[in-house]
Amino acid sequence: MSRPITPPVNGTIQTNVDVESAISSVNIRTGSELNKHHMVVTIADETLHLWGYKKSMLKVAFLWLATFVTLGFIRLFLYWNPKWLVKCTAYKCPISVCDYVLVKDEHENEAFRPIRVMDPPKGQSQLVLPLGGGKFNYVESLRYFTYRKMTYIWHPNELKYTTIAALEADLPLGYFHDCIESEAGLSDDEVQRRLIVYGKNLIEVKLKPILVLLFKEVLTPFYIFQVFSVTVWYTDNYAYYASIIIFMSVTSICADVYQIRKQELRLQSMVQSHETVMVLRNGGQVETIPQENLVPGDVLLIPPRGCILQCDAILMNGTVIVNESMLTGESVPITKVALPELDEEHESIPFSFKEHSKHLLFCGTQVLQTRYYRGKHVQAIVLRTAYTTLKGQLVRSIMYPKPVDFRFTKDLFKFVGFLACIAALGFAYTLVVMIFRGSALKKIIVRSLDIITIVVPPALPAAMSIGIIAAQMRLRAKQIFCISPSTINTCGAINTVCFDKTGTLTEDGLDFNCVRAVFASGSDPNRKPEFGEEMEDFQSDELPRDGELVKAVATCHSLTRIDNELCGDPLDLILFRKTAWIIDETTPDNQVEETARFDMLQPTVLRSPVHHFGAESETELAVIRQFTFSSSLQRMAVIVHNPKEESRSMHIYVKGAPEMIASLCEPDTVPENYQEVVNEYAQHGYRLIAVASRNLKMSYVKAQKVKRELIECQLTMLGLIVMENRVKKQTVGVINQLNRAHIRTIMVTGDNLLTAMSVARECGIIRPNKKAFLLEATNNKSSTGKTLLSLRQSVSSSEEVLETDDSSWDAEAELGHLVQSSYHLAIAGPTFSVITHEYPELLDQLVCVCDVYARMSPDQKQQLINSLQEVDYTVAMCGDGANDCAALKAAHAGISLSEAEASIAAPFTSKINDIRCVPMVIREGRAALVTSFGVFKYMAGYSLTQFITIMQLYWLSANLTDFQFLYIDLGLITLVALSFGYTPACEKLAKMPPPTRLLSVASVLSIIGQLTIIASFQIFAFIYTAYQPWFIPYAVPLPDLEDRRSMQGTAIFCVSCFQYITLAIIYSKGHPYRKPLYSNIPMCVSLLVVGMLSIWVTLSPPKLFSDKLEFDPIPYFDDRLFYFMLGILSGVLSYLYETFFIEHMILGVRERHLKHKQLMSGSGDINRFERILIKIG
Predict the structure, then answer these.
(1) How many angstroms separate the CA atoms of 422 and 32, rounded?
(2) Which side of the chain, N or C, has fewer Cβ within a 10 Å radius?
(3) Alpha helix locations (H) across 70-220?
(4) Running DSSP on this structure, what letter comes out for residue 972?
(5) Is residue 33 within 8 Å of 166, Cβ to Cβ?
(6) Is 604 exposed, middle or buried (0-12, 13-18, 19+ CB in 10 A)?
(7) For 319-384, where are the E strands, in sequence order?
(8) Interval 117-135 mean pLDDT
């Protein structure tokens, strides 16, 4: 039933709507919309597929029955497959009336989420439905579900699920001023209604109970298979090895749970916050409330002495100095200004996060100080809360990272599936043979199931982790700590490394190098302005006598005093201190606190040292207005006034990028060799700042209102300031090491593009013999409305427009031309955004050829990492700031040089505060990956070797004895496998990464060839024994008796012992990713011990051993020597096959030839980035 429109509250139109009536009225128009079973929800960059289901009690009852009959196995299978769980418990229905939704995101993650209903708060009959634009409808209830900390509500008018509309969505700017002018704030009833819909303003990480974590680990397929295996072994009285497997599994599970809990605790400590805040509510009353009770639309009061912001808000009055390092990584305090008053024409302009960022306060940032009108509070309007804030999105990206697609893991499961097929064949063979022999039922079942545990070794997961554990220990010894050990293997395949710049490649901050003043022509019209010599400070008598350059440097900055300490951009601090001027922000009567100076007539005053440039008294300059630095304009400016001059006499000082400042200056004030000097410094990696000025005639009031573009022109060039961003001494060597290993290096930074390029050239990311070009978005549009792109060489003023209006061909050809001509490409964040949105067809090509990314925001860094991964690069990211968190989490391997926020997102944290850790991690990753390959092939070879042995013995109805199994499983396999990973990584990075395909031709042929050799020698020994004069045939025991001893079993056992040892030696080779085998002392000792024992057992077994192993002894030494020689010969042939055929012929010749052929043709199994590079040249 519809209700009338109620009066606006805070300028918000609120309409009463009955949900059922709304749905039925819309149903008349679009009935098909309500009957949809599937729906796609796209919010920002996130896309979800939804399917509606209703619970079926009949299906649920049948599932419980099936669970009981199958002893829980059917439920376990459904736990691994959410989609099948849905189908077994519910039926399809329209999504508008469903009880559950099956959610699938863009990374193929699936979840089964229940639909819930929001009811009005107690004592009220209605909820609010946010519509965007500051409008809310009143409704009686809301249907919703939650997925990954976000709430999705069913919109009765739009007939779809959507996230709760943020307050700023489609919001006109006039709305904010209406809220402030009312001076009322929200009522308690309105707060309660919004609190139900928006939820509590908390970003919290709930700790999962230890028991839940244990169950999740235990219920993985491999551990379930281990439970099955040890059950079979205990049934068969094979308790020794079963107990060892249980001990290893429990240890592994506990270690994994410990790591998970440790990571949860670190993330929780980063995000948890329980503060109180002040708000304006209930007709203008100031109330102190817990942060969790904040809702969008609240008027937030910011304390004068600072705080940590608990929401995203827009500043409405006063100024706020904030530290946004949590989000941007830059620790420079930033001044946020209030949203200005608007005329009627501009009140309807929609709010934009990007366009109005200088008025925005972000959750998690630190407010250092506020300044306000005397007697008034600094006010802001809450826009977003909890996980919808910028900090909340960062935390979500850490909690739910993009799954790493690593081919090795997929191949591992495929190979295990192949082993399972062989196990099924062995299972069938055993059943047939034993039924034919008339064996007892229990024996048939146990022996058949035992074959499965032989072919698919339960110790495989533990064995596969050996290389990873050893690599983790070696990294820890080098002060590199890993919280995600499974990532170590992935590091072995890394072929691209992205580096942050400041604090990672370079030292923090910049150093002053020199200043080059411009000396004006004076009264001589024939004299051109020219640069002076390099000066090391601003006190030199050789600087221009008018002192304009020094005045510009002393006033043109955003420095401020906080608690009597000068704070601001480190670059501004360095330059200001070089001038020796004094900043004075006190009022004449000294009665007003720092925090109460906003918009007072007394501005910031800068004072020079006495007798500066020969002056008899100190110079005073008052900063009337400041134009903050704009990355798009590449400059900042201040309007200043000298109190000794007339009131309308003003000066504007501007500083910024050399090219930009020169374009704003009168040509006759710029030296003729200006560009030549700029290029010379830029080529040597210096950062340049140009300074210019202009005299103005205007009143104080006009100075406060004039648009900057009207006065930032017709400037006079004053000079260049040369700054040096010192590259860490270890950086160049590491970058060169990575380049020699053919590992691509990329710089991705939030810093200036030109600075980034100069540092990239200095450290070797941009090679000395290659030119660098800047790809930039222009202000011009094509005929189709797309932004035109331009290519500009970084050391010259030549520029060519890149036509991309009609199609991508011209741009594509241009990118291809750059690659063919050995150029480097650099791009800034705004241009990257243009290409992402307007030229998505160029993005794949861009990330293949561009090596420098500057002015990149945290989400753009993450997007770059994802784009590189989409073209099949295996990417590492190395950074040190909180703004790198999302990228560190998204990369295949994130390496943090900080122990703060970044370390929570990164699998690796290095206490070595430079990039030497990167090649260390890659080397250890390669060693671990090769070890995992070797261990897997060794375990697969061992299981199939034992399978071949058992199949022959089952033919006789015989078997290996328990202690023979134990000697092989524990002595020959487990002890050797445990020492596999202790071969250290090679000190030098090889030019080619190790193979990542477990099912490559070389791997498959290796295993098949080795098994062929092994089977041949075992079958020969089996047959040879049967024809010996001393041979006593095996007597099949009665069905209820167990006798496993046989002469043929003894012969095969002795030969196979040496085959297992040979497999260990073959698959533990080192070069070129690991050191030689002899460097692995534990493994050498293990092999020596088991080798000597095997020789002893074969040639002259002592009675104790003979009895324990239950040998049916070979009577003559010559025959025992013959079996020993068979084992040695088998090993020699296996070694020769692996060395000459697999490593030389297959890996060395065939695969190189095949790779070359594929690269030339652009076809076959090659990476996408290789195809792209082939396509564009």
Answers:
(1) 51
(2) N
(3) 73-80, 82-89, 174-182, 188-198, 210-218
(4) I
(5) no
(6) buried
(7) 319-323, 333-337, 360-361, 366-371, 378-384
(8) 78
pLDDT digits (tens, 9 = 90+) for 1138-1166: 988 888 777 766 566 666 565 556 555 67
Tokens of 925: 């990753």
The span from the CA of 645 to the CA of 849, in Å, is: 56
What residues contact residue 585 under an 8 Å CB cut-off, 6+ apart?
560, 561, 594, 597, 604, 605
Residue 810 pLDDT grade (very low, low, confident, very high; cuts 50, 70, 90): very low
Q: Does residue 223 surpass a pLDDT of 60?
A: yes
Q: Which range, of 62-66, 321-325, 938-942, 979-983, averages the lowest pLDDT?
A: 321-325
Within 10 angstroms of residue 1042's Cβ, the number of other Cβ atoms is 12
pLDDT attached to residue 5: 29
| Amino acid in the structure at residue 579 | T
Pair of tokens at residue 892: 């295949």
Tell me whether the omega of the peptide bond preceding residue 1072 falls within 30 degrees of 0, making it cis. yes
Please name each of the domains of the chain with its CATH number: 6-168 (no CATH), 210-269 (no CATH), 407-479+921-1168 (1.20.1110.10), 496-507+728-911 (3.40.50.1000), 511-724 (3.40.1110.10)
Q: What is the pLDDT of residues 828-874, one digit of tens each?
A: 888 898 899 888 888 998 899 899 998 887 788 889 999 999 998 99
Task: Residue 708: name the closest of 764, 778, 633, 776 by CA.
Answer: 633
Residue 985 near residue 474 (C-beta atoms within 8 A): yes
The position carrying tokens 């070694």 is: 1135
In three-state form (DSSP H/G/I as H, E/B as E, the rest C), the secondary structure along 574-610 is: HHHHHHCCEEECCCCCCCCCHHHCCCCCCCEEEECCC
What 3-state DSSP class applies to 823? strand
Q: Determine contact, residues 67/74, Cβ cutoff 8 Å.
A: yes
Q: Confidence class of residue 1031 from pLDDT cuts 50, 70 and 90?
A: confident
Closest C-alpha among 277, 280, 116 to residue 199: 116
For the segment 71-81, what is each residue's pLDDT rounded down to a tens digit? 888 888 888 88
pTM: 0.73
Query: Span 1053-1077, mean pLDDT?
Result: 91
User: Is 914 assigned a catalytic role?
Assistant: no
Q: Which of 18, 500, 572, 969 is catalytic?
A: 500
Tokens for 927, please give them: 């060693």
Q: What is the number of residues in the chain? A: 1177
Q: Minimal CA–CA distance to 40: which of 161, 153, 163?
A: 161
pLDDT average, residue stretch 983-997: 87
3-state secondary structure of 806: coil
* Per-residue model confidence (pLDDT) at position 758: 78
Cα dihedral 910, 914, 920, 921 sign: positive
* DSSP secondary structure code for residue 1083 in this structure: H
Is the distance from CB of 1019 to CB of 952 less than 8 angstroms?
yes
